[in-house]
Amino acid sequence: MRVKIADVARLAKVGAGTVSRVLNGSRNVSPETREKVEACIRELGYMPNLVARGLAANRTGMISAIIPAIGYTQHAEVMQGLSDVLHENGIQLMIGHCGYSIEREEQIVTDFLERRPDAFYLTGAWHTPQTRRLIEASGLPVVECSNLTDNPIDSVVGYDNYEGARQMVHLLHSRGHRRMAIVTNAVDPNDRMADRLKGFWLRRANLVWTWTASSSATRIAF
């Protein structure tokens, strides 16, 4: 039989409202009572209904993150850091990977919105029009990462892939290099890769250049 809040209150010899205040972290509970209630919660194995609590408070304590691939070290390290910081603040991370497909990202966003997250972390600035409409209509905070854009949904944190590639080619050219190759992954198109290619090609005048598309196993990106 599922343990209810009334069972905890009965064992702790307090009212159900007191148990609720302990669960919600209210300060209007004495340290002794809080300790007693928490001990009873552990003894009974009580688990609060986070869905119901989220509906009441209009918060679920969940952040949704969508990344293009789980296996790449760059994304894995970002998710690790994000998860660590959120955990310290009592928030959990829900991760989906879209495989560099903006159509799949749209489906994940739709599914995640049904779970009522408190905010979104998105990789890059390329999204389907429907994805943008859904997130804007939700009113949730959004951070787009890994690339800069002049038209973010909400907030953007990243770096300028276009300018970085352009300056790299300019530096190599200034040092006398005339034969350059860019090795990238043409299988997984995204805004970051597109901006790097634009930056590379911008400096192609007076250069002898070669564009080589590699497999994902040997991808080099800048």
Automatic annotation (TrEMBL):
Q: Where is the HTH lacI-type domain?
A: 3-57
* Entry superkingdom: Bacteria
User: Which GO molecular function annotation, any one, does this entry have?
Assistant: transcription cis-regulatory region binding
Which CDD domains has this protein been placed in? HTH_LacI
The family database entries (SMART domains) matched by this protein are listed as: HTH_LACI
The protein's UniProt keywords, in alphabetical order, are:
DNA-binding, Plasmid, Transcription, Transcription regulation
Descriptive protein name: HTH lacI-type domain-containing protein
